[in-house]
Design goal:
The chain has 313 residues and is α/β, with parallel strands linked by helices. It is 43% helix and 14% strand.
């Protein structure tokens, strides 16, 4: 059984061996394809289609004594063309630790910093607490302007999004949106997309979780709303499904060498997806993820082939 970590080690070892071969030394290696970017519909600003999330394993390391090693995760993403970092006060120590790292490293202005707002309890949020949480987010990252803040999990959207609209008008934040990964909130999400001037939404979307294709993603395209794709690996679900299995040989047509690239290329090939933000605490995984953000991407026929293959496992 080969884990994602072992697969990457084997790939790096093979790459090192190839680099030492006489034929490799005799000619320069071809430059990699540039990172694919997509425009934010409301502004035209382009973002790399793969970024970094901070839940799950990132959050676990952020809350440990080993949190300083996350510095290399950020460096790896930036070195390989990524800029989008998605976090939230609700992700344990993630926002606080990530903010400290990027401040100390001087990286804050190189990142598209996306965080969230949610102090709703029992369906309602206190405006004072909401504003205090926003100010804490500013202090943590040390930026005068935060790129994106979204109402997390549709918490009291009426009140909390009104605060984000105010901040956007004051130009303290550049973009505002809402998020959810809960099916029970999809109807409210759709209503909010129609009623509010959203710049972004953040939703769950993966090769085995395509419900967003039915209504939400088409509506985002129609309304000019950017989309962050959360949980593109189905959290751990997809890794469990492919455990011990090899990537199909025909995936090489898309330059796919790993399951991470397989899953991510499927997600970002949907034209409504602006950026996928898989969470990880390992630099090698970041490099693997960013490799998916290069051409070619699957067309409609290949997307169906990829999805059907996963269904058979």
């Amino acid at each position: 059984m080969i884990s994602r970590r072992d697969t990457l080690k084997l790939g790096m070892a093979a790459g090192a061996a190839a680099a030492l071969a006489p034929t490799a030394l005799s000619r320069a290696a071809p430059a990699p394809e540039p990172i694919i970017t997509r425009p934010i519909p409301k502004s035209g600003e382009r973002l790399p289609v793969v970024g970094l999330g901070s839940s799950a394993t990132f959050s676990a390391v952020a809350g440990s004594e080993d949190w300083q090693r996350l510095r290399n995760v950020f460096m790896s993403m930036l070195e390989h063309g990524g800029t989008v970092f998605d976090t939230a006060p609700a992700y344990g120590a993630s926002e606080e630790v990530a903010g400290q790292i990027v401040r100390e490293s001087g990286l804050a202005d190189e990142l598209f910093w996306a965080t969230k707002l949610n102090v709703a309890q029992g369906g309602s949020a206190d405006p004072g607490r909401a504003r205090a949480q926003v100010e804490t987010s500013f202090q943590r990252v040390g930026k005068q302007v935060i790129d994106l803040i979204q109402v997390h999990n549709m918490g009291d959207v009426e009140m909390q999004f009104s605060i984000l609209k105010e901040l956007r008008e004051q130009r303290r934040i550049r973009y505002a949106g809402v998020t959810t990964t809960f099916p029970r909130q999809y109807e409210l999400l759709e209503q909010t997309m129609r009623a509010e001037p959203l710049d972004f939404i953040g939703v769950d979307y993966a090769i085995d979780n395509r419900v967003m294709e039915e209504r939400i993603l088409p509506l985002a395209a129609d309304r000019g709303i950017a989309v962050l794709a959360y949980a593109p690996f189905g959290r751990t679900r997809l890794w469990e499904k492919v455990r011990g299995r090899e990537v199909p040989s025909w995936a090489a047509e898309l330059g796919i060498r790993t399951w991470a690239q397989y899953f991510l290329k499927f997600v970002i090939s949907h034209p409504a997806i602006t950026c996928a933000t898989p969470a990880t605490s390992r630099p090698a995984n970041v490099v693997d993820n960013m490799s998916a953000a290069r051409e070619p991407l699957p067309d409609r026929a290949m997307r169906e082939r990829m999805a059907k293959h996963i269904e058979t496992l």
